Every structure is written in C-alpha cells, then in structure tokens.
Amino acid sequence: MSYRDIDVLFSFYEKKQTENYQIINKSDRPVKVDVDTYEISGGKGVPALTQLNLKRTTEYEGNEIVPLVATKAEVQKYTINQELVRLANNEGEFADKTDADRATNFESTGTMDKDALSEKQNYVESKLSFKFTALRMDGKTVEEAKTN
Fold first, then answer.
1. Phi, psi (degrees; rounded to nearest 5) at 43
2. 3-state secondary structure of 124
3. HEC readout, the chain
4. Quick one: which of 55, 26, 34 has its CA closest to 132?
5. Is the distance from CB of 78 to CB of 54 less than 8 angstroms?
C-alpha cells in the first residue's frame, strides 16, 4: 500500500473547466485507488465552497463521484476513505479481461456561494491524498479473497 498527495488550488473566478488529472497504472499488478483524505489548508475562498466532489471518467462499476466536502467547507482535514477506481495492470489485464482500463481521469465538481466571494477572495488551498493498494490478478485485495 502506498500513498500519494496532490496539492490543489481552486480559483472560483476562472471561467475555464477545472483541471483534468490522470492516474495511470504502470505496474505489473492491478491496483485499487482510494481517496484517502482531503485537507483544506487555507485560502480566502473557503467560506464560499459549499460542496466539492471528485468525478472520474473511467467506466468502472464503483463510485463515479466521490464527495470531498458535503456541506460548507472549513479549514480542516476530511477523512474520505472511499474507493475511486480499480485499474488493470500495465498490459490491460484485470481479472478475465485483457483490454481493461489501466488509467482514469478525474476532475472536480461542486457548488459555491457567490455571495460569499469578493474579487480578492477567490481561492482554496488544499491537498488531496490517494491510497494505492496492489491487487491480485483476479482484481481482488488479499482481504477480499479471504472472505470470498
């Protein structure tokens, strides 16, 4: 199991879409990707953030949307601990498939309170942490295989 952090800066006045991030599995084994934590460390736009989610693009039977902030945001560390996706190994092998997705894109979606913003209060500084768990070739964790 390994962890990876991504520093994220949101700006509410930008008209463009949020940046689209990508996770690619380059290992020989399939991998399970969990959203571990989301930590808001500051920014004048925090009071305006009312909801924030991660939305993945890969066709996967798990959760397409993972909530990060469900209600009014605060400077704090949110424990998410929710599965985002399971990815095939670097050859596209996953369970009985040989052409499964070994990558996924994700972006942020959410809502804000425009009345809580001013021209100089439009950003949120935060860090998103993922947990990566190597899977067996059948797509199960060791723990899942013990219970089935």
1. 110, 140
2. strand
3. CEEEEEEEEEECCCCCCCCCEEEECCCCCCEEEEEEEEEEEECCCHHHEEEEEEEECCCCCCCCEEEEECCCCCCCEEEEEEEEEEECCCCCCECCECCCCCEEEEEEEEEECHHHCCCCCCEEEEEEEEEEEECCCCCCCHHHHHHC
4. 34
5. no
pLDDT, tens only, 70-117: 999 999 999 999 999 999 999 999 999 999 999 888 888 888 888 888
Residue whose token pair is 């998410």 = 80
> Which amino acid is residue 69, in one-letter code?
V
Q: Tell me the C-alpha distance between 52 and 33, whole Å.
A: 19
Give the tens place of pLDDT for each residue, 112-146.
Answer: 888 888 777 678 888 889 999 999 999 999 999 99
H-helix segments, 35-135: none
21, 106 in Cβ contact below 8 A? yes
Please state the pTM of the whole predicted model: 0.83
Residue for token pair 């890969």 = 58
State the Cα–Cα distance between residues 52 and 40, nearest whole angstrom: 11
